[in-house]
Amino acid sequence: MPLSSSSTSSTKSIRRAASELERSDSITSQRFMGRRQSLIEDARKEREAAAAAAEAAEATEQIVFEEEDGKALLNIFFTLRGSKTTALSRTLKVFETFESKIHHLETRPCRKLKDNLEGLEYFVRCEVHLSDVSTLISSVKRNAEDVKTTKEIKFHWFPKKIADLDRCHHLVTKFDPDLDQDHPGFTDPVYRQRRKMIGDIAFGYKHGQTITRVEYTEEEINTWREVYSTLRDLYSTHACSEYLEAFRLLERHCGYSPDNIPQLEDVSCFLRERTGFLLRPVAGLLSARDFLASLAFRVFQCTQYIRHASSPMHSPEPDCVHELLGHVPMLADRTFAQFSQVFTQGFHSTSRAGKLQYIFYFTLYWFTVEYGLCKQNGEVRAYGAGLLSSYGELVHSLSDEPEVREFDPETAAVQPYQDQDYQPVYFVSESFSDAKEKFRAYVAGIKRPFSVKYDPYTSSVEVLDNPLKIQGGLEGLKDELKVLTDAIGVLS
């Protein structure tokens, strides 16, 4: 809310300023007896003080914040010109000086700068002492441009058309070989340069383009071969039947073999014909929001680089081994592909129902799509990508060591998960269809501001937030049901 929205506040500020001047004049008269100021000088000072007070009141009225426990919660937008880090350092120093607690920081390329200058727009949500609000804003303005505040956006932007995915590049720097000292490639400048080169393909990619092919090195192919050969020997006894069928098709049509790392463009064309899924190159670990939002359009964000040669059986981050061996075969199955899309369509609204629900949602994804187990012919088999791309955890998951529970969304959503070691607990589903129905029932119980519906004809997501939109969706459903009814009549 604004600090002040009435003229009364401005009037009080002017009176207070005038009172301060009178007090100041009184002190001055005591110190300099006999010195008399002219009426013109007095009037000038009073006018300047009033103008300053009015300007301060006007500036204060423009600041929007929320008050909580004696603190101000601010949403600040500002722009920094150029690519130098000095301006950013000075600006962040302002927040540090005022002991601000930054809750969220996000950037995007600035589109407003003139003369073709480069720059970034920043969004910062922070917590600061109430008494420091105006001064903090003034200090930020000395270092940045277009500084403004706004109320919290309850319904954040998310992609509604498949082409909007071009705007989703929120990479997570966790496990980045340039920054993470524990990454196997941190001390290898050749590997890091190679990663940058492959990453640039993803940053330059736009929806609808052909995915640039990568000429993999002998060392990279050797790494792929070691993992591929080891896992393939294990799949027949540990992977679900849907995975095995798709894997055979990928070997036949997409160049899957120990001596060849498949190209994303070839695999994407194969998936499109099988289930309507597409691959899109990504440069590294993507934010959960952007990754799950992509799946709602049947787009899978896929890395092209491969893990470091010194650690072929383990990678701290997603790489093409994890994507191509773990995720892709399951996305070639129609039932699982539908489960993946249904799972993520509810994410748009559920993630805005509260931070806790957002965490629950991602945890469910972890224990199903990444580390899920299912029953087949009286045996437990793996369908999770994190299992099917990791020899050690695949063996561990079907051993007697971990605890295996029946899949229940309520329980799985609050189960702590492990991203640095093997999971101590796994959840097993009766089938993909069973998991899908249980998940739908779970999401239906979450209070959400809206629902969404995917339109395959326009590759867009429609927000269902009023009865008219829902009625339109029902009309389309009636047409589809009529086609199926007619088909039954032809066969009978």
Automatic annotation (TrEMBL):
<keyword id="KW-0966">Cell projection</keyword>
<dbReference type="GO" id="GO:0006585">
    <property type="term" value="P:dopamine biosynthetic process from tyrosine"/>
</dbReference>
<dbReference type="GO" id="GO:0005506">
    <property type="term" value="F:iron ion binding"/>
</dbReference>
<feature type="region of interest" description="Disordered">
    <location>
        <begin position="1"/>
        <end position="27"/>
    </location>
</feature>
<keyword id="KW-0597">Phosphoprotein</keyword>
<feature type="binding site">
    <location>
        <position position="322"/>
    </location>
    <ligand>
        <name>Fe cation</name>
    </ligand>
</feature>
<dbReference type="InterPro" id="IPR049321">
    <property type="entry name" value="TH_ACT"/>
</dbReference>
<dbReference type="InterPro" id="IPR036951">
    <property type="entry name" value="ArAA_hydroxylase_sf"/>
</dbReference>
<dbReference type="InterPro" id="IPR036329">
    <property type="entry name" value="Aro-AA_hydroxylase_C_sf"/>
</dbReference>
<dbReference type="InterPro" id="IPR045865">
    <property type="entry name" value="ACT-like_dom_sf"/>
</dbReference>
<dbReference type="InterPro" id="IPR018301">
    <property type="entry name" value="ArAA_hydroxylase_Fe/CU_BS"/>
</dbReference>
<keyword id="KW-0560">Oxidoreductase</keyword>
<dbReference type="GO" id="GO:0043204">
    <property type="term" value="C:perikaryon"/>
</dbReference>
<dbReference type="InterPro" id="IPR019773">
    <property type="entry name" value="Tyrosine_3-monooxygenase-like"/>
</dbReference>
<dbReference type="GO" id="GO:0004511">
    <property type="term" value="F:tyrosine 3-monooxygenase activity"/>
</dbReference>
<feature type="binding site">
    <location>
        <position position="370"/>
    </location>
    <ligand>
        <name>Fe cation</name>
    </ligand>
</feature>
<keyword id="KW-0963">Cytoplasm</keyword>
<dbReference type="InterPro" id="IPR005962">
    <property type="entry name" value="Tyr_3_mOase"/>
</dbReference>
<dbReference type="GO" id="GO:0048471">
    <property type="term" value="C:perinuclear region of cytoplasm"/>
</dbReference>
<protein>
    <recommendedName>
        <fullName>Tyrosine 3-monooxygenase</fullName>
        <ecNumber>1.14.16.2</ecNumber>
    </recommendedName>
</protein>
<comment type="function">
    <text>Plays an important role in the physiology of adrenergic neurons.</text>
</comment>
<comment type="similarity">
    <text>Belongs to the biopterin-dependent aromatic amino acid hydroxylase family.</text>
</comment>
<keyword id="KW-0175">Coiled coil</keyword>
<keyword id="KW-0127">Catecholamine biosynthesis</keyword>
<dbReference type="InterPro" id="IPR021164">
    <property type="entry name" value="Tyrosine_hydroxylase_CS"/>
</dbReference>
<keyword id="KW-0479">Metal-binding</keyword>
<keyword id="KW-0530">Neurotransmitter biosynthesis</keyword>
<feature type="compositionally biased region" description="Low complexity">
    <location>
        <begin position="1"/>
        <end position="12"/>
    </location>
</feature>
<dbReference type="Pfam" id="PF21417">
    <property type="entry name" value="TH_ACT"/>
</dbReference>
<dbReference type="GO" id="GO:0030424">
    <property type="term" value="C:axon"/>
</dbReference>
<keyword id="KW-0503">Monooxygenase</keyword>
<feature type="binding site">
    <location>
        <position position="327"/>
    </location>
    <ligand>
        <name>Fe cation</name>
    </ligand>
</feature>
<dbReference type="Pfam" id="PF00351">
    <property type="entry name" value="Biopterin_H"/>
</dbReference>
<feature type="domain" description="Biopterin-dependent aromatic amino acid hydroxylase family profile">
    <location>
        <begin position="143"/>
        <end position="492"/>
    </location>
</feature>
<comment type="pathway">
    <text>Catecholamine biosynthesis; dopamine biosynthesis; dopamine from L-tyrosine: step 1/2.</text>
</comment>
<dbReference type="InterPro" id="IPR001273">
    <property type="entry name" value="ArAA_hydroxylase"/>
</dbReference>
<dbReference type="Pfam" id="PF12549">
    <property type="entry name" value="TOH_N"/>
</dbReference>
<dbReference type="InterPro" id="IPR019774">
    <property type="entry name" value="Aromatic-AA_hydroxylase_C"/>
</dbReference>
<feature type="coiled-coil region">
    <location>
        <begin position="40"/>
        <end position="69"/>
    </location>
</feature>
<keyword id="KW-0408">Iron</keyword>
